[in-house]
Design goal:
Keywords: Cell membrane, Membrane, Transmembrane, Transmembrane helix. It is a multi-pass membrane protein. InterPro entries: Multi_antbiot-R_MarC (IPR002771). It is found in: Cell membrane. The chain is an all-alpha fold and 194 residues long. The protein has one domain (5-188). Helix content is 81%, strand content 0%. It has helices at residues 5-19, 25-35, 40-64, 69-89, 104-112, 115-127, 130-149, 151-193. The longest helix is centred in the C-terminal third of the chain and has 43 residues, at 151-193. The radius of gyration is 17 Å and the shape is globular.
């Protein structure tokens, strides 16, 4: 077992920024108002299963459809980039249908285990040991569960301005991650292309 505290912390921070559950609190509260109840346990468990499954089979699925990890990571860097722009500028680029119930869709997928999270997992897989990434996923899912459970309380404590500031800060972190992801993988794409 190759447990490494530094890798766990770094992977946890990246996933924390990408999942952005704190930044999603306004969305979660909006959903709670629309559908009345959020199944926090179900959403958290399903999101964790999706993430761990993708960590192991994601690369095989990509190979099956003829896409290499670098191409996927570059595509993912664009998704993370747009997510960051949304967070920093407070605009909505991604629109979705209003759900009937809020547990698996849209909370587990795509809010928690969305395209940005999937891409980050594959990118982390290229750099870190799997066991460290799994610990990072578990830590994030525990945090996600706590946030889902107490979203109304968090909204009261932080207020609109507090949430907005947190969202913008994580937006900037996410933007930096997107740029790093793009730069790291675009070079390898060109090397493979030659």
């Amino acid at each position: 077992m190759n447990f490494n505290f530094k890798e766990i912390v770094t992977a946890s921070m990246i996933l924390f920024a990408v999942i952005d559950i704190v930044g999603s609190i306004p969305v979660i509260i909006g959903l709670r108002n629309k559908v009345g109840h959020i199944q926090s346990e179900k959403a958290s468990i399903v999101a964790a299963c999706i993430m761990v499954a993708f960590l192991f089979v994601g690369e095989s699925i990509l190979k099956l459809i003829g896409i290499d990890v670098n191409s996927f990571a570059v595509a993912g860097s664009f998704i993370i980039f747009f997510l960051a722009i949304e967070m920093i500028l407070g605009i909505t680029l991604y629109k979705d249908d209003v759900p009937e119930s809020a547990s698996i869709v849209p909370i587990a997928f795509p809010l928690i285990a969305g395209a940005g999270t999937m891409t980050s997992l594959l990118s982390l897989r290229a750099e870190y040991y799997v066991e460290n990434i799994i610990v990072a996923i578990v830590l994030n899912i525990i945090f996600v569960y706590l946030v889902l459970k107490s979203s109304a309380k968090i909204e009261r404590v932080l207020g609109k301005n507090g949430l907005s500031i947190i969202r913008k800060v994580f937006g900037v972190i996410l933007l930096a991650i997107a740029v790093k992801l793009f730069a790291a993988n675009i070079n390898q794409l060109f090397e493979h292309g030659q």
